[in-house]
What we know:
Layout: H1 3-9, E1 11-13, H2 22-31, E2 35-38, H3 46-64, E3 69-72, H4 92-97, H5 101-118, E4 122-123, H6 148-165, E5 168-174, H7 195-200, H8 203-212, E6 216-219, H9 238-248, E7 254-259, H10 263-266, H11 271-281, E8 285-288, H12 292-307, H13 313-330, H14 334-340, H15 379-391, E9 395-398, E10 411-415, H16 434-443, E11 446-449, H17 456-466, E12 471-476, H18 483-494, E13 499-503, E14 518-521, H19 527-537
Parallel strand pairs: 1-8, 2-3, 3-4, 4-5, 5-6, 6-7, 7-8, 10-11, 10-12, 12-13, 13-14
Antiparallel strand pairs: 9-14
Helix pairs in contact: 1-13, 2-12, 5-6, 5-15, 6-8, 11-12, 16-19, 17-18
Amino acid sequence: MTLKEQIGQRLMTGFHGTELTDEYRKVVREYKIANVILFRENIESCAQLRRICGEIQRLVREETGHGALIAIDQEGGVVSRLPADGVNVPGAMAIAATGDPANAYRAGLLTGRQLRALGVNFDFAPVADVNTSAANPVIGARSYGDDPAEAGRYACEMARGLADGGVLSSAKHFPGHGDTDVDSHLALPKVDKSREELEKAELVPFRMAVAAGIPAIMTTHILFPQIEPEYLPATMSRRILTGLLREEMGFDGLIVSDCMEMLAIKNHFGTVNGTIAAMGAGVDVVLISHDTLLGGEAAEAAALAVAEGELDAAEMERSAARIMEYKKKWVDGQQASAAGKKAQGDQAPVTGEKQQAGQKMSGSGEEAAQVREPVEFDFAAARAESLAMLQKTITEVHRPVGGTIDYGKAPLCIGCRSYRSSLVGNADGDRSNLFGALMAELLGGEAADMTVDPDDERIAELAKQAKGYTAAVVGLCEGHRHPGQQKLVHTLAEAGVPTIAVSLRAPYDLAGLPDAVWSLAAFEYSEDSIRAAAKCIKKEAAASGRLPVKLTR
């Protein structure tokens, strides 16, 4: 393998739109970039995704002689890239709310089998971050919770399900993004914790994942000054990636960077310079997710860095060889034939033998290339299982002393638009106040709009309006960051309006609400989660979940 080919194996890029672009074809042909990441903007339907994955594989095989790692951020919940005709399982915190790690395995298995059927072979999941900061704008409900051991347990089960479903998984974001109040997509966060503190929380799930055989780990663009004294985020730190992760923790799988176009890297170090530093630190696969041609610039810079001795040629060769070993088992072996097969919606239901929590995943074993077929996927059966799982996630956070609230014959259902708190999520759709409109339809009431952070005038208007209804049902979306939402709930309760509050992402929105308010946690702002919450409000289903994080009243 030439140096250009080695570098191409170590880069992953993306493209805009739902068709392969000239820029993408150019970087594959000229720079042999052999891996791609897909986002929601690249996907319009399952059939189109299956087709474009086939086109990617053909192009990359023709130009490099090997298949492509085709990756996606399919965590479930708020970070779900699959289209409406696909199956998006509940997110991490929702799954943890069921109290059963077997659900994490099933979510991973359904996701893995579906992705494999559609031609995707690498899922950047599960999230192994321990969400210890309620103010965290980027992790939140993407985490399995604030208990390190539980977060690790659920993450390992999802990764095992993904492996059994036929795709590579990647625990993220090493060494931990759960205790920040800054989004690394927008700025450069810092976690000023000692090694001892990190060992008690952030590192616990990653150690568990390494012990279980996780095939890949994704890095984070965060400064950890007490373990890396240089002004370098973890992605660019050899002390953290080679010293801690490889040598101390014994991880021998793929190290993958988060996107190097995130502003934590771009604004402070530059994407291309950051890419070279990440390779030198020990990252195997470096992501430049959006600016396709920038991947070519990074490839040229990497070749120059090897020529000038900035990057070690032997390490370049070893890293490329490591990637090829995974491709041999997951892309170019028996599994490769699976990517081209048609995934049909009327095949036998997705099934799987029940397995005990804590089993070692088969992510890097020789059996990995032999246990994934057939790849036909029963979308209807998987969707039914996912919805049943979602119903179990709805959690009663607080019940008033007098019992649950009867919404009556004419409730006022108040909500805001779906708010995206971080660039990592999917772009907001054109929906306005889905919660209010859908909940009103389901409960037989009327809808009212509020902004993401309603002002005092609007709060007063809504409280006055609600007095003419039998109850108020309020959907909170990132309300702990927008105090107007919580102030509305307080005002309604103080005005004597029977009030039900439903959180639509992380349940921190429900902390400190009045005792008279009946509060329920859903964990995503979606039609399915609103329907699930409505069933609990109507007493058609029990809100049987348990909180995966601690709240203060």
